Amino acid sequence: MNLSNETTPQCFSINNPPFNFPHTIASVYFSTVFSPLGLTFNLIAFVVLLKSFQRTHSRSRSSFLVFLCGLVVTDFMGLLVTGIIVITFHFTQFNWRRLDPHCHFCNYMGMSMVFYGLCPLLLGATMAVERFVGINRPFARSTSMTKSRAVCIVLMVWAVAGCISLLPLVGVGSYHMQIPGSWCFFNISSKASDMVFCLLFSLVGLLSIAVSFLLNTVSVVTLVKVCCGQDSMQRRRDYEVEMMVQLIWIMMIATICWCPLLVFIAQTVLSESPLQVPNLLLFIRFATWNQILDPWVYILFRRAVLKRLYPNWDWSRGSIRTLYPASFVGTIRRFTRSSLGGDVLGGGERRVSVETQSFKVKAPPSSP
């Protein structure tokens, strides 16, 4: 017995294949059908973004498109790397112990799951910060954010996610074979080192979602005020609204797809309860939908598509205010006039008062 424990690799020490898990959540059809679909959607989205990148002349929009391209590449590679392994296992039923006696292959897949899981969340938070600065501090941002700097930021996000995925290889957590034997992931348990990594993974993901929600909310409020304020016609805001709509949808999809898994991992290790494998597989399915649905945000929520769907809207005007009814604009203006238009209005009243007084000045008496 001791000899068997000594010769068992670490990644197979908890779950040792083969497994008998006939639950429908572990069906091969999900990976076989939706992985190729997700890859196709991301490839189409990447082509759409490249065409948009070539046509754009705005610095803020071009840097935002760099972040979107980084997100598309991340989603595409995540589906490609993990999908190939899972689909190959289901069709060939290869023996993990013989194929990977030293756990290199299992560690690679575990690292890929962590890396390609955290990258979309971190990139979403990064884009939220970029849009927050671009809308609330446009002059400071216009002089600092360039395409090359946006590329560097994407590389930094990938580096941070890569460093986190390497922690189990240095003793903080551990990667293990997971039921039904087609994938590897970090061990979700209350053991000290495993708990630290589980909480780190969950907190980084939840914090990224919280930052995205907070900053996107502030950005939307600010953008609505500017678009519906009295100076709305002085600056073109259609592309900024388009970027915010895309970012809001990215945040919503990430929240719906990832929060169940992140909360489940934290709750499991903190309550010291046994791992519920069907729930884990279900929440992993939810998280995978993030990579499948993200491309449709870039494909559908574009100004060119909206023009075709709503041709009666006045797209030639410089403000997104034309997309809303007059009553809605009037309501927003009443709420925002005190914060945005007070100084302008006050200055205008003072100018009118001065001009009126100038007409009331009596002319000097003519000399005899």
UniProtKB/TrEMBL annotation:
The chain crosses the membrane at residues 28-50, 62-89, 109-129, 150-175, 195-226, 247-270, 282-301. The keyword Cell division does not apply. The keyword Nucleus does not apply. Its main location: membrane. It is found in: Cell membrane. InterPro entries: GPCR_Rhodpsn, GPCR_Rhodpsn_7TM, Prostanoid_rcpt, Thbox_rcpt. Keywords: Cell membrane, Disulfide bond, G-protein coupled receptor, Glycoprotein, Membrane, Phosphoprotein, Receptor, Transducer, Transmembrane, Transmembrane helix. Gene3D superfamilies: Rhodopsin 7-helix transmembrane proteins (1.20.1070.10). Residues 41-298 form the G-protein coupled receptors family 1 profile domain. It is a multi-pass membrane protein. It comes from the Eukaryota. It comes from Oncorhynchus tshawytscha. SUPFAM superfamilies: Family A G protein-coupled receptor-like (SSF81321). This is Thromboxane A2 receptor. One of its GO terms (biological process) is positive regulation of blood pressure.
